[in-house]
Write a sequence for this structure.
């Protein structure tokens, strides 16, 4: 992803997700973290509907497991913010901005 090769990254991220889903208990935050990174990749590929579904599901799991202020939860929130920013969904963007800790 960092190299700007989102198409290649998607395949690797799906493989990582499948691996975690096989190896970890259902609802594990690490599996949800994989979903979050995949969602970020799909945002970069302009597949916004799919990205949104993955990111929101990931956020619910990671936040329930680690708490809203945990860095992994906040990473997902930042991916959600990026999604809504590039998608042009200003109302959702503002709503999610309010979930960031006040010290950011």
């Amino acid at each position: 992803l960092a190299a700007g090769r989102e198409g290649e990254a998607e395949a690797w991220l799906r493989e990582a997700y499948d691996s975690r889903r096989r190896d970890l208990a259902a609802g594990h935050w690490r599996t949800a973290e994989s979903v979050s990174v995949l969602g970020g990749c799909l945002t970069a590929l302009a597949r916004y509907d799919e990205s949104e579904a993955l990111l929101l599901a990931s956020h619910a799991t990671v936040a329930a497991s680690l708490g809203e202020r945990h860095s992994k939860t906040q990473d997902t929130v930042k991916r959600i913010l990026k999604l809504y920013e590039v998608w042009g969904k200003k109302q959702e963007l503002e709503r999610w901005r309010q979930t960031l800790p006040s010290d950011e």
